[in-house]
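Quick start: load a record and inspect it. Here is Selenoprotein O:
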Amino acid sequence: MTQRIAFLIRRLQFPRLLFLALLPVDPVKENYVRKVKNCIFSIAFPTPFKSRVRLVAVSKEVLEDILDLDLSVSKTDDFIQLVSGKKIVFGSIPLAHRYGGYQFGIWADQLGDGRAHLIGIYMNRQGEKWELQLKGSGKTPYSRNGDGRAVLRSSVREFLCSEAMHYLGIPTSRAASLVVSDDEVWRDQFYNGNITKERGAIVLRAAKSWFRIGSLEILAHYGELELLRTLLDFVIQEHFPSIDVKEPNRYVDLFSIVVSETAQLIALWMSVGFAHGVCNTDNFSLLSITIDYGPFGFMENYNPDYVPNTSDDERRYKIGNQANIGMFNLNKLLQALNPLLDPRQKQLAAQILEGYPVLYYTRFQKLFKAKLGLLGEREGDDDLIAFFLHLMEKTEADFTMTFRQLSEITQSQLLELNIPQQFWALKTVSEHKLFPAWVSQYLLRLKSNMNDSDSERRKRMTTANPRYVLKNWMAESAVQKAEKNDFSEVRLLQQVLRHPFQKHSAAEKAGYASPTPSWAKDLRVSCSS
Ligand code: AMP
Ligand code: MG
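Running the structure step on this input writes:
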């Protein structure tokens, strides 16, 4: 074993050791699908692949900055074995987490880590604890009818997007590595009876915590209130240092932070046109980070009705509904906390929840003001934003590139209303008859920015408006190559999305800042993963 891996392993606090004293583990040790009661975790070992395993990609930053590993270790056999679930760190007992949740608005009862294994908690040189989880690593007691596997296409998407979100400044789980095997995994990708052979892949994911709203819901649902209290106190102690764990109001304090941070997270998603796709309560983190990437999508043409997941028939998780769903999920969180609250605390928590829409709206406006380069507060700012979004919607303009090009164009070019061809998305918006009216309002408003210049404005706006986001067609193009063991585009995207605000020549050549190619117009993404 290489020295560096040995170092990582020495510093891994085995999940069982860390949690055991505090968070109960299922006494049943056999790995079969069942209803699990009165515990937070079940012991479950990954099922290694039978065939050869290839390394598709690694995140240099996660390895170096989070796991204190040199990138060169990723070339070693020990590394591949560790990240594919073949080698279990000596003494470690991997765990699968028991949780429940509301899926598409309906209580789904027990869900849990059906294809994920917590393999360790790493305390890094900065003293941060990171929970390391394999996804796609085999069946657990929570697998229900699933096979415990994840296919390459969905793993490439999760790997690329979670890292991309981090570099967009959006709280998220991270991805350390992605491996693919030749093990057969069968999927009916579009639920139309067309079952095809795909390959099993595993992502090594890292997050400060993987606990979700559903982690608490399952305990409340089964009346396991002592356990609910234990888990809440653990989460507060570990992750909410501003809350005193002895304070009688601590659960209300926790709720207040989660409400506020969830509002912030969803506003951030909206600011980059990100639709999560499956905003079930089991996919909403208690730390308000983005987790469980599935049929997500970055909106292309601005459209509040955009739904990334073709399996979402009722359009419940359309992009423009995410803030409302945040409210729904927080309400479910409150229901899970309620058995531990006295009447006064219940009332307080209900009031906090009532404040969510204003919190969300305030954050949304702040982010969109920054996207427009507006400084300070002026009457009419909200209208200026809404007006611009309206023009984008009517002209079906590309959300990401319109904002980006508005960041790149000069005020004098705007004033002339003659938008150069290179600003293709903005040019689309300019076809609307009210565009001149919007431009004159906008230019007038920019004049009221104190101590500003046009080059300062453009500089500021190019740090608020990314040039590259992981549009479906880009992920699809990388996936198609990866299916043929050509991982070059996965790696190119990874590189480009590490600096989404900087122009990158290979990205330009690949068309990542160009209109969506015609072959990709009808791309679909389903829940199948
Ligand atoms: P998701 O919406 O993908 O986050 O997953 C919802 C639930 O389904 C979770 O409990 C997952 O662990 C479980 N699940 C999804 N796919 C599989 C699979 N292939 N095998 C076992 N469980 C799965
Ligand atoms: Mg999930």
